[in-house]
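Question:
Now give any protein.
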Amino acid sequence: MMSKSFHPMVRTLMGPGPADVHPRVLAAMARPTIGHLDPQFVALMDDIKALLRYALRTDNLLTMPVSGPGSVGMETCFVNLVEPGDKAVVCINGVFGGRMKENIERAGGIPIVVADTWGRAVDPNKVDETLRAHPDAKVLAFVHAETSTGACSDVRTLVEIAHRHDTLTIVDAVTALGGSELQVDAWGVDAVYAGSQKCLSCTPGLAPISFNDRALDRVRGRRTRIQSWFMDLNLVMGYWGSGERRSYHHTAPVNALYGLHEALLMLHEEGIEQAWARHRHHHAALRAGLEALGLELIVPESERLPQLNVVGIPGGIDDLAVRQRLLNEYQLEIGAGLGELAGKVWRIGLMGYSCRPVNLLLCISALGAVLRDLGHPGDVAGAIAATHQALAA
């Protein structure tokens, strides 16, 4: 039992999430708590929805944060859009596609799997072939930015294919939002969910979602009752809907929503296109430093995420030993591999407030120093210089 207040050590978070939280967000979360039906808070809710529409590039009226992590955003999409007996095509090229499959099963749906190699984007040709073979499929579900592998799939193309087959789309944008181009309306995405703790520079615990009219028509036309009370959008929209009067659904995490509002406000101030460009620019600098250390990114360049970099571990180097030394000696967190990639890769995040020069230089210098101590040949000084050069480009 702890007998005093908890004061964690300050870490630099460059794993797969959470990312470093911006000081403005932490300050916003320390503001006085008010009631979740207070008129001031209702006005803040409306502003959050408007800022989320900007971040997602959508005019969808049903755009809001769900109270819970990205996984709750995922489940909200599936429990509302998949009914018992529905066929749903799900693309699995990493851990989170697998979680989509489990959500389909738990909603009573029948998953039809399109499998791709971990570290590669979803293959549009496989998706088209699968939808041709299953013309009664109700949903196509896939991950935009696969956090477990660092692969980015072509949302626009996959949505176009789904719509040619009269199939709704559910898109996981947890790691994508704010870091990779995402155009919900222009690309025709029907339902999308994300998370607050990655490229938005906010704390964990909120999951932005957005449904277009096609998706809402599916919700309204269900044959069966939505199995989850908490995630039933028919009920939640009574609280997150419009107008000054809101019906009580649950006690929203007031201070966490202060933080999300501040994070979205900063994204608006920076400009969404500029945020995408910042992540690409810093990715190029990180890549230059890693390559100078003799390390390789496992995802082909054309399919690579800028904000989540998956690096092959050199032969003879102990994964855990490196990560422990980085954490203990440099207060730097990077991520381990998951699933098929466990023990084979490190996952280095460049998300939101973590995506800045000071973090890049710490990562390259600290990783280089630890690897050198463990016998890996690599020019640490040259890697730092390469990173500086790419940052200045």
Remarks:
- The chain has two domains: 23-269, 271-392.
- Residues 272-292 form the longest helix (21 residues).
- Residues 120 and 151 are 6 Å apart (CA to CA).
- The chain has a mean pLDDT of 96.
